[in-house]
Every structure is written in C-alpha cells, then in structure tokens.
UniProtKB/TrEMBL annotation:
This is N-acetyltransferase. Pfam families: Acetyltransf_1. Residues 195-206 have a biased composition (Acidic residues). The keyword tRNA processing does not apply. It comes from Salinadaptatus halalkaliphilus. Residues 248-258 have a biased composition (Low complexity). Gene3D superfamilies: 3.40.630.30.
Amino acid sequence: MPNADVFSVSVPIVLRPITNGAKRVCPATDWSRPITTSSADETGVDNLLTVATDSRPVDLEFELLGWPPDGPKLQLDYRRFSYAGKFVMTNTGKAVARDGDELVAAVAFNEDRTDADQLWLRYVTVDRERRGDGIGPELLRFARDRAVERGYNRLRIAVNNPFAYEALYRSGFAYTGETTGIAELVLEYPRPDDGGDGVDFGDETDGEGRSARARYQAGLAEFRDRELSDAELDFLDARRDSDPPAPDSSGARSSEGI
C-alpha cells in the first residue's frame, strides 16, 4: 500500500436545501472542520476521508437509480472512478451523486443471500478529483435512508482500511465484531446493541457509552495488526483510547430503533 502524507485542513462546504422523493439535495449547511486525510487509494470503498486542498463549494443532487435485483447498468470512466467495472452489473441497485449534469459518486448494493431484510452496500466510489468534498459519506447516508424507507431493517458494509471505517462511523454505522473471508471489517446500521449480541469487545462493556467506545476501539485494533501506510498508522495513533465519532443527526436511531 503506498505511503501518503497526513495533514489537517479546514474545508468550507456549502450544501443546499432538501427535496422530497428519490432525489435529494444536501441540506443547507456551512461548516468547516479539520479532517485527517490520506491520498492512498482503497479497495471496495474509496478513501472517504480524503480532503482536497483546493476546497470548493458542493451543490449536490442525490438520486436512487434502482433496487436489486433489477438495477441499471452504470457506465463509469475507469480513469476517474475506482471499481468502475463493478457498476455495469445489473443485479445490484445503485444510487448516485451529481453536481449539475456531472456524475461525481456512486454506490452499488444488493440484498443478503439468506436474509431479504438485510442490504449490503458493496462498492462506493467518488470521482478522483472530487474526493475531499464530503460526497462519499453524504451519498452513503442518502442510500441508507432510502433503504430504511423501503423496509430493510439492517444495512451492512465491509471495509479494509481505517479511513473508510471512520467515515462509516460518521454515517451512523458501527463495527459488528465480524470480518469477511478477506479480512474486511463488517459494520452495520442501525448500530448493534452494545453488549447484547454475544460479541466480546473487552472489559469496557458496563455502560452504553463505554460499551460503544470498546466496540469502536476493537475495530481500530484489528487494523493495527496489519501492514499499513504511515498515514494510516498516524491516524490510528491519534484515535487511540478515543470515543467513536458521533453520527450526523440523521444517523441517530429513531424511536423504532431504525
């Protein structure tokens, strides 16, 4: 995995009002915050925390293109998007983000083979020149909310790097304690009930906050045993013993637990 420098930058992002239906425009927000970043490319899920130094206002429209197993074929430019070949398959649902007439991000998803109430987010990709505009996490939240509206009671995604892990936490997901056959960490939404699923996350499981922290730290510990870039190692050191990042307001559980 290539090395990448870590830096902190304040990124002003301007988002526009929401519209109803299968299309959505980001809610009006104007904020700036430091984000740790890496330029390393990732597998399955783009590095969603990459921050561009030439930050630009984002005016995005999100659109659901179809549900599995009858999703559309989506042609992406392999020079701009990672995993472009995965989006031509028609057995996955898809959602996209557009800036005007330009497609800038996409996510593909399919139902679990044994549980029709569970949806897997398989591939997430952002235009290489637009990484750092906050598009990836926003698209994930859009797809998440549409899936919940459709009746799925659980969403899952597998990641293989700490940057994507952190971005998914910010989108309301949490580590399940499970890994795939290729050592990817599985996260799910809604966040698993702390201490209630039989997974041992260590001693800190005696309260809601401490249990959530132990769950988050258990996932980070999985990455520490792997060959990582300098940027990833620095990021893990910075997050040692910290609480999990809070999800955005739309990522909080409703009274129905979804």
